[in-house]
Amino acid sequence: MSRIEYGRLRLSFRNGTAVRTSTSVTERALAHEDEHAFTKRLLERYRHREGTIEIIFKAGHPEYAVITFSDAA
User: Fold this and answer.
1) d(Cα 29, Cα 48) in Å, to the nearest integer?
2) What are 55-61's contacts with CB under 8 Å, separation 24+?
3) Is the pTM of the predicted complex or chain greater than 0.90?
4) Kind of pairing, strands 17-28 and 61-70?
């Protein structure tokens, strides 16, 4: 995966060894996007990955989304 500008890495660890279990990135909605347009853009951008999308709303409009990808094998 490319460099994460804004997001999170989740690691599990045991006996001094860490393994990445998931990666989350945050994407802001564009000013003109409604929920449908925002979701469509995210699905197009991340179509090669598998995971979940959590959209956060402010005043009834999408503000940003947290997209989480599973990195576990």
Assistant:
1) 20
2) 55/29, 61/29, 61/34
3) no
4) antiparallel
